[in-house]
User: Which sequence fits this backbone?
Protein backbone atom coordinates (compact mmCIF):
# COMPACT_ATOMS: atom_id res chain seq x y z
CA UNK A 1 0.00 0.00 0.00
CA UNK A 2 1.46 3.35 -1.02
CA UNK A 3 1.74 6.48 1.09
CA UNK A 4 -1.44 8.05 -0.30
CA UNK A 5 -3.42 4.94 0.57
CA UNK A 6 -2.16 4.97 4.15
CA UNK A 7 -3.09 8.63 4.51
CA UNK A 8 -6.61 7.93 3.23
CA UNK A 9 -7.05 5.13 5.75
CA UNK A 10 -5.77 7.41 8.51
CA UNK A 11 -8.19 10.18 7.56
CA UNK A 12 -11.07 7.72 7.28
CA UNK A 13 -10.28 6.26 10.71
CA UNK A 14 -10.22 9.74 12.21
CA UNK A 15 -13.72 10.54 10.97
CA UNK A 16 -15.11 7.10 11.84
CA UNK A 17 -13.69 7.00 15.37
CA UNK A 18 -16.49 9.05 17.04
CA UNK A 19 -19.16 6.89 15.38
CA UNK A 20 -17.34 3.70 16.39
CA UNK A 21 -17.34 4.90 20.00
CA UNK A 22 -21.06 5.66 19.83
CA UNK A 23 -21.81 2.22 18.41
CA UNK A 24 -19.65 0.61 21.10
CA UNK A 25 -21.19 2.42 24.07
CA UNK A 26 -24.81 2.68 22.91
CA UNK A 27 -25.24 -0.57 20.94
CA UNK A 28 -22.54 -3.20 21.48
CA UNK A 29 -22.19 -2.89 25.26
CA UNK A 30 -25.98 -2.76 25.91
CA UNK A 31 -26.41 -5.79 23.62
CA UNK A 32 -23.77 -7.75 25.54
CA UNK A 33 -25.39 -6.78 28.84
CA UNK A 34 -28.79 -7.85 27.52
CA UNK A 35 -27.48 -11.25 26.45
CA UNK A 36 -25.82 -11.68 29.84
CA UNK A 37 -28.99 -10.70 31.72
CA UNK A 38 -31.01 -13.21 29.70
CA UNK A 39 -29.08 -16.01 31.43
CA UNK A 40 -29.92 -14.69 34.92
CA UNK A 41 -33.15 -14.73 36.99
CA UNK A 42 -32.98 -10.95 37.52
CA UNK A 43 -36.26 -9.60 38.93
CA UNK A 44 -37.40 -6.19 40.17
CA UNK A 45 -33.90 -4.86 39.46
CA UNK A 46 -32.54 -6.76 42.47
CA UNK A 47 -29.02 -6.73 41.07
CA UNK A 48 -27.23 -7.75 44.27
CA UNK A 49 -29.27 -10.95 44.56
CA UNK A 50 -29.73 -12.12 40.99
CA UNK A 51 -27.12 -10.58 38.67
CA UNK A 52 -24.45 -13.22 39.27
CA UNK A 53 -26.83 -16.18 39.46
CA UNK A 54 -26.98 -18.15 36.22
CA UNK A 55 -29.99 -20.17 35.08
CA UNK A 56 -28.79 -21.17 31.61
CA UNK A 57 -31.52 -21.25 28.97
CA UNK A 58 -34.34 -21.16 31.51
CA UNK A 59 -35.71 -17.79 30.31
CA UNK A 60 -35.67 -18.94 26.69
CA UNK A 61 -37.47 -22.14 27.69
CA UNK A 62 -40.12 -20.01 29.39
CA UNK A 63 -40.60 -18.02 26.19
CA UNK A 64 -40.96 -21.23 24.19
CA UNK A 65 -43.49 -22.58 26.66
CA UNK A 66 -45.46 -19.32 26.55
CA UNK A 67 -45.43 -19.40 22.75
CA UNK A 68 -46.88 -22.91 22.84
CA UNK A 69 -49.42 -22.57 25.64
CA UNK A 70 -50.08 -18.90 26.50
CA UNK A 71 -52.81 -17.27 24.32
CA UNK A 72 -51.73 -13.81 25.46
CA UNK A 73 -48.15 -14.30 24.30
CA UNK A 74 -49.38 -15.85 21.05
CA UNK A 75 -51.42 -12.67 20.49
CA UNK A 76 -48.25 -10.62 21.03
CA UNK A 77 -46.38 -12.58 18.35
CA UNK A 78 -49.34 -12.40 15.95
CA UNK A 79 -49.70 -8.65 16.48
CA UNK A 80 -45.98 -8.16 15.86
CA UNK A 81 -46.09 -10.07 12.56
CA UNK A 82 -49.22 -8.30 11.29
CA UNK A 83 -48.10 -4.87 12.43
CA UNK A 84 -44.59 -5.25 11.01
CA UNK A 85 -45.62 -6.74 7.67
CA UNK A 86 -48.46 -4.38 6.76
CA UNK A 87 -46.89 -1.20 8.15
CA UNK A 88 -43.61 -1.92 6.36
CA UNK A 89 -45.36 -2.17 3.02
CA UNK A 90 -47.32 1.03 3.68
CA UNK A 91 -44.23 2.95 4.78
CA UNK A 92 -42.07 2.00 1.81
CA UNK A 93 -44.68 2.06 -0.96
CA UNK A 94 -46.46 5.07 0.53
CA UNK A 95 -43.23 7.06 0.74
CA UNK A 96 -42.30 6.08 -2.82
CA UNK A 97 -45.71 7.02 -4.22
CA UNK A 98 -45.71 10.38 -2.42
CA UNK A 99 -42.19 11.19 -3.62
CA UNK A 100 -43.05 10.31 -7.22
CA UNK A 101 -46.36 12.17 -7.09
CA UNK A 102 -44.78 15.38 -5.81
CA UNK A 103 -41.90 15.05 -8.29
CA UNK A 104 -44.20 15.64 -11.27
CA UNK A 105 -46.11 18.67 -9.93
CA UNK A 106 -45.25 22.32 -9.34
CA UNK A 107 -42.40 22.64 -6.83
CA UNK A 108 -44.19 25.18 -4.62
CA UNK A 109 -47.28 22.98 -4.37
CA UNK A 110 -45.09 19.92 -3.85
CA UNK A 111 -43.20 21.58 -0.98
CA UNK A 112 -46.44 22.44 0.80
CA UNK A 113 -47.74 18.92 0.32
CA UNK A 114 -44.51 17.40 1.70
CA UNK A 115 -44.64 19.73 4.69
CA UNK A 116 -48.18 18.56 5.42
CA UNK A 117 -47.01 14.95 5.49
CA UNK A 118 -44.08 15.89 7.73
CA UNK A 119 -46.33 17.29 10.48
CA UNK A 120 -46.82 13.89 12.21
CA UNK A 121 -43.06 13.38 12.38
CA UNK A 122 -42.46 16.89 13.72
CA UNK A 123 -45.12 16.54 16.43
CA UNK A 124 -44.12 15.29 19.91
CA UNK A 125 -44.99 11.63 20.45
CA UNK A 126 -47.46 12.37 23.26
CA UNK A 127 -49.25 15.09 21.29
CA UNK A 128 -49.44 13.00 18.13
CA UNK A 129 -50.75 9.99 20.04
CA UNK A 130 -53.29 12.14 21.89
CA UNK A 131 -54.69 13.43 18.60
CA UNK A 132 -55.42 9.89 17.40
CA UNK A 133 -56.61 8.85 20.85
CA UNK A 134 -59.47 11.33 20.61
CA UNK A 135 -60.00 10.64 16.90
CA UNK A 136 -60.61 6.90 17.49
CA UNK A 137 -62.15 7.23 20.97
CA UNK A 138 -64.99 4.78 21.42
CA UNK A 139 -67.47 7.28 22.87
CA UNK A 140 -69.36 10.31 21.57
CA UNK A 141 -66.33 12.53 22.22
CA UNK A 142 -64.40 10.59 19.59
CA UNK A 143 -63.93 12.64 16.44
CA UNK A 144 -64.66 9.75 14.09
CA UNK A 145 -67.76 8.64 16.01
CA UNK A 146 -69.01 12.21 16.24
CA UNK A 147 -68.71 12.73 12.47
CA UNK A 148 -70.38 9.43 11.59
CA UNK A 149 -73.23 10.00 14.06
CA UNK A 150 -73.92 13.47 12.70
CA UNK A 151 -73.98 12.08 9.17
CA UNK A 152 -76.43 9.40 10.28
CA UNK A 153 -74.10 6.55 9.34
CA UNK A 154 -74.18 5.08 12.86
CA UNK A 155 -76.61 5.51 15.74
CA UNK A 156 -74.32 4.42 18.59
CA UNK A 157 -70.62 5.08 19.20
CA UNK A 158 -68.32 2.30 18.02
CA UNK A 159 -65.40 1.21 20.27
CA UNK A 160 -62.93 1.20 17.37
CA UNK A 161 -59.92 0.08 19.36
CA UNK A 162 -61.70 -2.73 21.18
CA UNK A 163 -62.84 -4.66 18.10
CA UNK A 164 -60.55 -7.66 18.49
CA UNK A 165 -58.24 -7.96 16.69
CA UNK A 166 -58.94 -5.77 13.70
CA UNK A 167 -59.63 -2.55 15.59
CA UNK A 168 -56.35 -2.62 17.49
CA UNK A 169 -54.35 -3.69 14.45
CA UNK A 170 -55.94 -1.08 12.18
CA UNK A 171 -55.24 1.76 14.59
CA UNK A 172 -51.64 0.68 15.22
CA UNK A 173 -50.94 0.36 11.50
CA UNK A 174 -52.64 3.66 10.68
CA UNK A 175 -50.94 5.71 13.41
CA UNK A 176 -47.43 4.34 12.85
CA UNK A 177 -47.80 4.12 9.08
CA UNK A 178 -48.63 7.80 8.83
CA UNK A 179 -45.34 8.65 10.53
CA UNK A 180 -43.28 6.14 8.57
CA UNK A 181 -44.52 7.27 5.17
CA UNK A 182 -43.01 10.72 5.72
CA UNK A 183 -39.56 9.21 6.33
CA UNK A 184 -39.63 7.29 3.05
CA UNK A 185 -40.92 10.38 1.25
CA UNK A 186 -37.94 12.45 2.45
CA UNK A 187 -35.36 9.88 1.36
CA UNK A 188 -36.99 9.18 -2.00
CA UNK A 189 -37.51 12.88 -2.73
CA UNK A 190 -33.82 13.49 -2.09
CA UNK A 191 -32.97 10.66 -4.47
CA UNK A 192 -35.26 12.00 -7.18
CA UNK A 193 -33.74 15.46 -6.93
CA UNK A 194 -30.32 13.99 -7.76
CA UNK A 195 -31.52 12.46 -11.03
CA UNK A 196 -30.63 14.66 -14.04
CA UNK A 197 -33.70 16.39 -15.44
CA UNK A 198 -32.37 15.78 -18.94
CA UNK A 199 -33.38 12.14 -18.64
CA UNK A 200 -36.97 13.11 -17.89
CA UNK A 201 -37.07 15.68 -20.69
CA UNK A 202 -35.67 13.19 -23.20
CA UNK A 203 -38.22 10.59 -22.14
CA UNK A 204 -41.04 13.13 -22.54
CA UNK A 205 -39.80 14.00 -26.02
CA UNK A 206 -39.90 10.31 -26.92
CA UNK A 207 -43.52 10.15 -25.78
CA UNK A 208 -43.05 8.33 -22.48
CA UNK A 209 -45.88 8.64 -19.97
CA UNK A 210 -45.48 9.49 -16.31
CA UNK A 211 -45.96 5.83 -15.42
CA UNK A 212 -43.30 4.74 -17.93
CA UNK A 213 -40.83 7.33 -16.64
CA UNK A 214 -41.43 6.27 -13.05
CA UNK A 215 -41.20 2.53 -13.78
CA UNK A 216 -38.32 2.47 -16.26
CA UNK A 217 -36.16 5.44 -15.22
CA UNK A 218 -36.80 6.79 -11.74
CA UNK A 219 -37.40 3.65 -9.68
CA UNK A 220 -34.39 1.72 -11.12
CA UNK A 221 -32.16 4.69 -10.27
CA UNK A 222 -33.41 4.64 -6.66
CA UNK A 223 -32.44 1.05 -5.86
CA UNK A 224 -30.01 2.09 -3.14
CA UNK A 225 -32.57 4.33 -1.49
CA UNK A 226 -35.31 1.69 -1.65
CA UNK A 227 -32.93 -0.80 -0.05
CA UNK A 228 -32.04 1.69 2.69
CA UNK A 229 -35.63 2.66 3.49
CA UNK A 230 -36.83 -0.94 3.48
CA UNK A 231 -34.04 -2.11 5.81
CA UNK A 232 -34.28 0.89 8.10
CA UNK A 233 -38.05 0.74 8.39
CA UNK A 234 -37.97 -2.99 9.07
CA UNK A 235 -35.54 -2.57 11.95
CA UNK A 236 -37.34 0.54 13.21
CA UNK A 237 -40.79 -1.06 13.23
CA UNK A 238 -39.41 -4.18 14.88
CA UNK A 239 -38.30 -2.17 17.91
CA UNK A 240 -40.85 0.66 18.00
CA UNK A 241 -43.27 0.89 20.91
CA UNK A 242 -43.67 4.56 21.91
CA UNK A 243 -46.97 5.34 20.19
CA UNK A 244 -48.24 1.84 20.89
CA UNK A 245 -47.41 2.14 24.59
CA UNK A 246 -49.42 5.34 24.97
CA UNK A 247 -52.45 4.04 23.06
CA UNK A 248 -52.49 0.87 25.17
CA UNK A 249 -52.00 2.77 28.43
CA UNK A 250 -54.90 5.06 27.56
CA UNK A 251 -57.09 1.99 26.91
CA UNK A 252 -57.81 3.01 23.35
CA UNK A 253 -56.82 -0.39 21.98
CA UNK A 254 -57.03 -3.88 23.39
CA UNK A 255 -53.93 -4.73 25.43
CA UNK A 256 -53.57 -8.27 24.03
CA UNK A 257 -53.93 -7.36 20.36
CA UNK A 258 -52.22 -4.01 20.77
CA UNK A 259 -48.94 -5.23 22.24
CA UNK A 260 -45.99 -5.96 19.99
CA UNK A 261 -42.95 -7.93 21.10
CA UNK A 262 -40.97 -4.71 21.61
CA UNK A 263 -43.67 -3.35 23.91
CA UNK A 264 -43.84 -6.71 25.68
CA UNK A 265 -40.12 -6.43 26.44
CA UNK A 266 -40.59 -2.93 27.85
CA UNK A 267 -43.62 -3.86 29.97
CA UNK A 268 -41.93 -6.99 31.31
CA UNK A 269 -38.81 -5.11 32.35
CA UNK A 270 -40.27 -1.77 33.46
CA UNK A 271 -44.03 -2.27 33.86
CA UNK A 272 -46.12 -2.14 36.97
CA UNK A 273 -46.17 -5.02 39.42
CA UNK A 274 -43.73 -7.90 39.09
CA UNK A 275 -40.81 -6.98 36.84
CA UNK A 276 -38.88 -9.81 35.20
CA UNK A 277 -35.72 -8.44 33.62
CA UNK A 278 -34.34 -11.91 32.85
CA UNK A 279 -37.37 -12.85 30.76
CA UNK A 280 -37.46 -9.41 29.13
CA UNK A 281 -33.77 -9.69 28.21
CA UNK A 282 -34.35 -13.11 26.63
CA UNK A 283 -37.22 -11.68 24.55
CA UNK A 284 -35.00 -8.74 23.57
CA UNK A 285 -32.27 -11.12 22.40
CA UNK A 286 -34.81 -12.97 20.26
CA UNK A 287 -35.94 -9.62 18.88
CA UNK A 288 -32.32 -8.72 18.02
CA UNK A 289 -31.77 -12.06 16.29
CA UNK A 290 -34.92 -11.55 14.22
CA UNK A 291 -33.67 -8.07 13.30
CA UNK A 292 -30.26 -9.39 12.20
CA UNK A 293 -31.76 -12.22 10.15
CA UNK A 294 -34.42 -9.96 8.65
CA UNK A 295 -31.88 -7.30 7.72
CA UNK A 296 -29.60 -9.90 6.13
CA UNK A 297 -32.44 -11.43 4.12
CA UNK A 298 -33.50 -7.97 2.95
CA UNK A 299 -30.01 -7.29 1.61
CA UNK A 300 -29.95 -10.69 -0.05
CA UNK A 301 -33.37 -10.41 -1.68
CA UNK A 302 -32.58 -6.96 -3.07
CA UNK A 303 -29.17 -8.21 -4.33
CA UNK A 304 -27.04 -5.87 -2.29
CA UNK A 305 -23.80 -7.53 -3.49
CA UNK A 306 -24.55 -6.76 -7.14
CA UNK A 307 -25.10 -3.09 -6.34
CA UNK A 308 -21.67 -2.86 -4.72
CA UNK A 309 -18.83 -1.80 -7.00
CA UNK A 310 -15.13 -1.88 -6.40
CA UNK A 311 -13.62 1.57 -5.71
CA UNK A 312 -11.65 3.16 -8.50
CA UNK A 313 -8.03 4.16 -8.21
CA UNK A 314 -5.34 3.01 -5.83
CA UNK A 315 -6.35 2.69 -2.20
Assistant:
Amino acid sequence: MNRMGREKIKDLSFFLFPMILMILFFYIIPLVMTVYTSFTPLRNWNVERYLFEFVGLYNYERLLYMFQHDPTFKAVILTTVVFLGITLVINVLGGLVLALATFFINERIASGFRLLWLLPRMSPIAVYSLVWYYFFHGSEIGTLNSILMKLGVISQPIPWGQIIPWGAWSILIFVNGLVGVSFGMIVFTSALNQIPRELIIAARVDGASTWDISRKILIPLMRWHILYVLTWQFLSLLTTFHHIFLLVQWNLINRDYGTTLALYVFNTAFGRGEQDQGLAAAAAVILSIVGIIGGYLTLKLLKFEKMMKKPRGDF
Observations:
- The domain at 70-307 is CATH 1.10.3720.10 (MetI-like fold).
- The chain has a mean pLDDT of 87.
- The longest helix spans residues 3-37.
